[in-house]
Structure prediction request, 453 residues.
Amino acid sequence: MSSISEIMNTALSALTTQQAAINITNSNIANVNTDGYSRRQVAIECTEYAGVQASDAKRVCDTFLLKQIVSETQDLGKWEAEAKYLESVEGVFDESEGSGLSEAMSEFWNAWQDLVNDPSGSTERSTLASVADTLAQTFNSIRSDLSDIQEGIDDDIVTTVSTINRIVEQIADLNQKIARANADGQDTNTFQDSLDSLVTELSSLIDISSYENKNGQICIQTANGKPLVEGTTTWSLSTEINSTTGLQDVIWVDSDGNSYVITDDISGGKLGGCLEIRDERIPAWQDQLDELAAALMNEVNALQTGGYDINGGSGVAFFTGTGASDMAVNTDILDDPGTIAASSSADGAPGDGSNASAIAELQNRLLFDSGTSNFSDFYATLVSEVGTAIQSAQAGYESRRDMVEFCTNQRESVSGVSLDEETAKLIVYQNAYEAAAKVISVLDELMETILDM
Prediction:
């Protein structure tokens, strides 16, 4: 039979254990709306002396779900960045206001056809020179706007790298706090929650891999294995202008201060999305635009220089430049539209418009895609590619957003706080606490009675 002291000790252990459980439950309820908070759970178990004790409060979390959230967030960050900048690119190729490149080319070819109808007409020649200048400026503007978007992305890359470094330092600081807390026997759950949030935030910026070391600290590497955090040690990223492209490279610096370019190794997060648009998508479209401009200039110039102007003189090059960025109408033609070579022979000038007719017919020549596309077809394909890329990015963003939301909801179902559940637990723990307190009160009265006897 248990002695009074043994019963008292059992009741006391129950009292302290239920109080600990009540405190944990109250903490859970208080943090019901705290982002990133993982509910705490305490296990109550018997001791070898017939009492009870509460284990240290543990976070309730599913590491698989956390890793999945990180993975999906990397993709979400990438698609979000791509969608953002592709919307800007879409604006560059916008034809809705009737002032795009398609309209400018159409007016250019129509002006040549008008010249065919009246080869000696000064109005027709002046109009042709004017619309040709507009066409060249439209090419210039689109090419320049694409370069401006690249520069804007460059600025965003610098800012993003700075944010990455800040988060890396915060993670290392939390790792330090975890080490100290473990050494002092203190709770690290709050630090662990903060680490989860920071790792998720970091993954939205750059593709990473992470693992937890034996001390509960998070270690992080870039996708190509370059360490960013190991315990309390950090490695920083930086940016540096590439002498060839004139754009920012992403640099990883090792412990000895040696720099390594990792631009091509980054494919996820916001940084990966920015780099793909800047280094792959935009340059490809710029090349296509240059191809279109160069072909138009070369074909027109070939016929123009082989023809004769209004005075029977040999035609001068209609355009100058090598691509969309420097395309321009020859100043001789802008100064004197009479130098436009509408005639195919000196004897036919100025009334012969056969050369102007040949130039007007260029719009129908199948010069692109292995002889299957004309100028308009080629540009329409380019615009279509931009539109498809935008749709793909938006679909990717929406898909990843839904997946992150789904995984987050799954995490909440495991780690989140349910007020109903915690309230029920609180009632159980309070009743157990009151029961233990009642036992102690009865024992106290019994001891007083015995002493009085």
User: Anything to note?
Assistant: The CA atoms of residues 67 and 113 lie 64 Å apart.
